[in-house]
Amino acid sequence: MQVILRVAGGLAEDEARSLHDWLLLDRNVRRAGRIEMASSSPPAPGQQGATILDLVSLVLGNGISAASLGVSIATWRTTRPQQPTVTVERTDGSKVTITGASPHEAQRLLEQLLGEQQ
User: Fold this and answer.
1) Cα–Cα distance measured from residue 80 to residue 93, given in angstroms and rounded to the nearest whole number
2) Model confidence pLDDT, tens digit, residues 7-24
3) CB within 10 Å: which end of the chain, N or C, has fewer?
4) Bridge-partner residues for 34, per DSSP?
5) Rounded to whole angstroms, how far apart are CA atoms 112 and 47?
6) Which range is least confidently modeled, 72-76, 100-104, 113-117?
7) pLDDT, tens only, 83-103
8) Could you tell me if 100 and 80 are in contact, meaning their C-beta atoms sit under 8 angstroms apart?
9) How does strand 95-98 pair with strand 86-90?
10) Cβ neighbours for 11, distance < 8 A, ≥ 6 positions apart
11) How far apart are CA 15 and CA 13, in angstroms?
């Protein structure tokens, strides 16, 4: 399953890179999925480089639970000076937004989004 993580705010690219790097350090996420930076806007025709990479794309395998991903995202948010809003979206358009949520609430939201029942 593929999901897109979108970080809101004026420094969205910096925050997305920080989240990307954080997820790469999370052994459970790294082992069970493919993590890449992506752009929310397509490049202009003839444009080379300078594309803003402001999304994190995850292709999740069966080896990671929504709870683990939720904990990782919630923990990353606590390391930021101002906890950014993170929207997690499936390719079918379903999404959840994690704002002031506790790690438990983030887990619950992602379990609902990814169809896991606990």
Assistant:
1) 27
2) 987 788 999 999 999 999
3) C
4) 59
5) 39
6) 113-117
7) 889 999 998 999 999 987 678
8) no
9) antiparallel
10) none
11) 5
Q: What is the 3-state secondary structure (H, E, C) of the chain?
A: CEEEEEECCCCHHHHHHHHHHHHHHCHHHHHHEEEEEECCCCCCCCCCCCCCCCEEEEEECCCCCHHHHHHHHHHHHHCCCCCCCEEEEECCCCEEEECCCCHHHHHHHHHHHHCCCC
- Beta bridge mates, 86: 7, 98
- Distance in angstroms (rounded) separating the CA atoms of residues 95 and 67: 16
Q: How many CA atoms lie within 13 A of 55 on its CB side?
A: 17
Contact 59, 19 (CB under 8 A): no
Establish how many alpha carbons lie within 13 A of residue 91's alpha carbon, considering only the half-sphere containing its beta carbon: 6
Integer Cα distance of 44 and 116 in angstroms: 39
Taking each helix axis as running N to C, give the angle between helix 103-114 and helix 66-78, from 0 to 180 degrees, rounded to the nearest 10: 140
Place of tokens 């379990």: 111
